[in-house]
Fold this sequence. Notes:
The chain is mainly beta. It contains one helix and 34 strands.
Amino acid sequence: MIKMATKLQWKWKGLVLASLISVSCDTEDIDPKPQGEVTLSSPTVEPDGSLSLNATAGFEVEITGLDGNPSLLYEWSLAAGRGTLIVENQETGHQTQTSAPSVTVRGDDLGNESLRVKVLNEATGRLLGEDLLSFQITEAVGCYSELTIFYRNNDWGNPAMAGIGMESGNVKTLQLSPENWLMDISPNGQWFLRQDFSDLRNYTIWLEACDGSGSTLLAEGPQLERPTFGPTGQYVYFSERISYPEQTQDPRARELVRVDIETGEKAFISEFRVFSSEPRVSPDGNWIAFEHSESTFNPNGTYAGSITHLAVMPVEGGAPRFLVPIESNDLAGYDWSPDSEHLIFNWHKQSGSSDTHTNGIYRISRDGGAAPSLIFAEPEGSGRPIYYADGTRIAFHGHPAGESTQFGIWSIDASGGDLQRLSTNRYNGFLQFIWEP
């Protein structure tokens, strides 16, 4: 009996051990350990940092340590539901799945929030890794809480910039000096870009706190021009004069530059060795529109004029795509549509309209391939048109009603109708930029 019991005990133990081994193997197959190392980050929101109410921020994920190069899917989720996920300008709620390693978050409600991303093998659905970034959605800390249109006067004895609140109608005045202009405002409303060109040999660009509490030198160099913020506020873009001595007919050129506002790191985006200027980054952060102007010379070496194009290129640099040729000095300014699919620009010929051309605001596709279409004829307008109100309206300066010679700030709808005057001022008003919450 004792021997029989012992044999049965060992047989039972063997079955249990085999079962445990089998369960262990099955569990490993069902729920394997993540394979990669995942890091979630944002250029503007630090871990345990903050995102302003109604503001947006981009988040991106990087995964390392993978075997091979599998196709990946990214599952995003907001734990508290205090924000909205946005992909390609489309709101997707609190959870979404993308094939690209990035997403935008808008802060909707005050409080603590966490963004989690899971990285999956697209073919097998296996979890490769995940990461979590926590932050707080806070009250906006900028100086503006409503759609505000900024314009400057031309009273050189008392130069100033005014901001018109489109909801309240309040006008806030900011005093300037003749050598200092405010060129742009950050997406969070905290910082102005101030350009100081009092020293013609060394221009400077400053970050100026919107409440006047301080300023920071951002860049300096020979003839820095037209600084502007990118869509996330992390980078400032401008053009800088460069000399290429090997270009014997004319060594001068302008290249496009990007500066990180946190680190001060400067990077040249273009190396076209021509006059590249007026950079404008698309709202999706993928493209730069700019003015590309190349000098031409007669056989005897004398200057023969320039060939100018409105052009676009990838935000990290690359070959330019020419959208439309425009005679020198006839491109008065341009802006991206909110969906980054097209641009509007003011085509203002100095000689005026003709049988083949009408001065005014035009629209052209980012991909080119077709002639621009006229939105609004404005014979006297000579400034940059800017989309606002989520792309439903366009602001510009001019005097389209013809009742005076003073430039004012005007508005039309996106189709060119419903002309409205936004400003009534003693001096010419020149539209500079627009801030929208």
